[in-house]
Amino acid sequence: MGEQSKDVHKYHQVITQLCVHACVGRLEGEDDEYVYF
User: Fold this and answer.
1) Per-residue confidence of the chain (37 residues) as pLDDT tens digits?
2) I need a surface site. Which of 9, 12, 17, 29 has the fewest CB within 10 A?
3) What is the pTM of this model?
């Protein structure tokens, strides 16, 4: 159960990072570089 919780947390971190990269890319006008990260 502990391992599963850790995996979910790690997955959540990855998704958050991808969203941040996408938002930053849009602000800087570099969509292609970040959205398909």
Assistant:
1) 667 888 988 999 998 888 887 777 666 665 555 555 4
2) 29
3) 0.46
